[in-house]
Design brief:
Strand 4 and strand 5 form a beta hairpin. With 437 residues, the chain is α+β, with helices and mostly antiparallel strands.
Length: 437
C-alpha cells in the first residue's frame, strides 16, 4: 500500500512537472530572447546634446569673428587700394614736376645764352659809345649843342657841321639805347630763368615729399593687410578645428540617438510581441474557462490549471484599488490618487479571489490575510498555482501574485497598470509562499 502511494505521488509529481512545462509553453517562450541593443542613458544623451550645442555655439562665435575679419579685410584692401592710387598719383605728379623742371632748366639755359648774347651786345654798345666819345675827344671837337656850329666858316660849312652834330648825337643816343635794351633783356632773361628754376625745384621737392608720404602709407597698409591676413588665417584654422569637433560631436550624438532609437524599436517590438503572446494566452485561457463551465469541484492539476486559466483570462484588465472578487472585476474605492468609483478592475488580492474561486476556494480580501491560507512552502520549492507575497522592510505584506511557472508570475500591479504576466521579482519577496491546492 505504501509502495502504491509512493508510485501515485511520483506519477502526480511527473504530471505536475509535465503540466508545468506545458504552462511554460503557454505563458512564455522557451527560446531565449535576443539581447537588447545598447541603450544610452538619458544622461549620456543630455551630455552628448550639450557637447553638440557647445561646439555649435563655438563655431557660430568663430564664424561671426571670421565674417567680421572678412569685412575688415575688405575695408583694409579698399584703404590699401586708395593709398596705392594716391602713391601712383604722387609718382605721376613727380614725373610731371621732373619734366617741368627739365623744361625749366632748358629754358634757363636758353636764357643764359640770351644773357650772354645780351652781355656781348652791351659790351659792343659800350665799346661803340666809348669809341664815339674817344674820337670826339681826340679830334678836339666840341660835341655840345653849339660847339661845332660856332666854328663854321660858311653857310655850307654850317650845314655840314649841323648834320654832323646831329649824326653824332643820334649815334651816341643809339649806342646808349642799345646798351640799355641789352641790359633790360639780360635782366629779364635772368629773372625768368631764376623763376623757372625755382618753380621746377619746388615742384620736384613737393613731388618727392608726396612720394615719401605715399610710400609710407602703402607700407603701413600692406603691413596691416598682412597682419589681418595672418589673424584671418588663425581664426579660420581655429574655426576649422572646432568645426571638426562639432562634426565629431554630432556624429557621436547621432550614434547615441541611433542606439537609443534601435533600443526603443527593440522595446516596442518586444512589447508588441509580449502583448500578442498575452492576448493569445488570455484568449486561450478564456476559452478553456468557458469550456469548463461553472464546475468548481476540481482537484489536483485540473484545479491548478483552472485557477491559472481564470487569472490569465483577465490579462489586460485595469488595476483598481479594492476592485475584484470571486465573481470577477468590480468597482473599487477611491484611492489616494483619486480613482473614480465607476472604474472596474482588480487589485492584487481581488485577482487572487477570482482565480481561486474557480476551484471552489474562498480567499480573504486582503493580501496579508491571504498569506495565512493554505500551506507555507519555501519560495525555492514553489510550483504553478502558488501565491507569492511582497513586503517592504519593517512593513506589513502589501502585494500578492500567482506563480505560473518558468520563473513568471501573474499580478494586478498598481494604479495605472493592467493585469500582466512578468518575470518573478525577488526584491521584497517573502521567503515563503502559500499553497492552497
Amino acid at each position: 500500500m505504501r509502495l502504491v502511494r509512493c508510485r501515485r505521488t511520483l506519477v502526480l509529481a511527473l504530471l505536475v512537472s509535465l503540466w508545468g512545462g506545458a504552462l511554460l509553453g503557454g505563458t512564455g517562450t522557451a527560446l531565449a530572447q535576443p539581447a537588447p541593443p545598447p541603450n544610452p542613458s538619458d544622461d549620456d544623451l543630455r551630455r552628448s546634446r550639450e557637447a553638440v550645442d557647445a561646439r555649435a555655439g563655438e563655431v557660430a562665435r568663430l564664424t561671426a569673428t571670421l565674417a567680421e575679419l572678412d569685412s575688415r579685410t575688405d575695408e583694409l584692401q579698399a584703404a590699401l587700394a586708395a593709398q596705392r592710387e594716391t602713391a601712383e598719383a604722387a609718382l605721376v605728379d613727380l614725373q610731371t614736376a621732373q619734366d617741368a623742371a627739365a623744361a625749366a632748366k632748358t629754358r634757363a639755359e636758353a636764357a643764359r645764352i640770351e644773357t650772354q648774347a645780351a652781355t656781348v651786345a652791351i659790351d659792343q654798345a659800350r665799346a661803340r659809345l666809348d669809341e664815339i666819345v674817344s674820337t670826339t675827344y681826340l679830334r678836339g671837337l666840341d660835341a655840345g649843342p653849339l660847339g661845332l656850329l660856332t666854328e663854321a666858316t660858311s653857310p655850307e660849312d654850317l650845314l655840314a657841321r649841323a648834320e654832323f652834330t646831329d649824326l653824332v648825337a643820334r649815334t651816341q643816343l643809339q649806342a646808349q639805347e642799345g646798351l640799355e635794351r641789352a641790359r633790360v633783356d639780360k635782366a629779364n632773361a635772368d629773372s625768368s630763368a631764376r623763376a623757372a628754376l625755382e618753380a621746377a625745384e619746388e615742384a620736384e621737392a613737393d613731388a618727392e615729399a608726396a612720394k615719401v608720404v605715399a610710400d609710407r602709407a602703402v607700407a603701413a597698409a600692406q603691413a596691416a593687410a598682412r597682419a589681418q591676413a595672418e589673424q584671418l588665417a588663425q581664426v579660420a584654422t581655429q574655426r576649422a578645428g572646432v568645426q571638426r569637433q562639432l562634426d565629431a560631436a554630432q556624429s557621436a550624438d547621432a550614434g547615441l540617438r541611433s542606439q537609443r532609437q534601435r533600443f526603443d524599436d527593440w522595446q516596442r517590438r518586444m512589447a508588441e510581441e509580449r502583448a500578442a503572446r498575452e492576448r493569445a494566452e488570455r484568449d486561450a485561457a478564456a476559452t478553456r474557462v468557458s469550456a469548463a463551465g461553472g464546475s468548481s469541484n476540481l482537484r489536483g492539476t485540473a484545479a491548478v490549471r483552472r485557477v491559472i486559466d481564470r487569472a490569465m483570462s483577465q490579462i489586460g484588465v485595469q488595476y483598481v484599488w479594492g476592485g475584484g472578487n470571486g465573481r470577477g472585476p468590480s468597482t473599487g474605492i477611491p484611492d489616494a490618487f483619486g480613482s473614480p468609483l465607476n472604474r472596474v478592475g482588480f487589485d492584487c488580492s481581488g485577482l487572487m479571489q477570482y482565480a481561486f474561486s474557480g476551484a471552489g476556494v474562498s480567499l480573504p480580501r486582503v493580501s496579508r490575510n491571504q498569506f495565512h491560507v493554505g500551506d507555507k512552502v519555501p519560495v525555492s520549492d514553489i510550483r504553478p498555482g502558488d501565491m507569492i507575497f511582497y513586503q517592504n522592510p519593517g512593513a506589513p505584506i502589501h502585494h500578492v501574485a500567482m506563480y505560473v511557472g518558468n520563473g513568471k508570475m501573474i499580478e494586478a500591479p498598481y494604479t495605472g497598470g493592467n493585469v500582466r504576466v512578468v518575470p518573478m521579482r525577488t526584491k521584497g519577496l517573502l521567503p515563503q509562499a502559500a499553497r492552497v491546492l
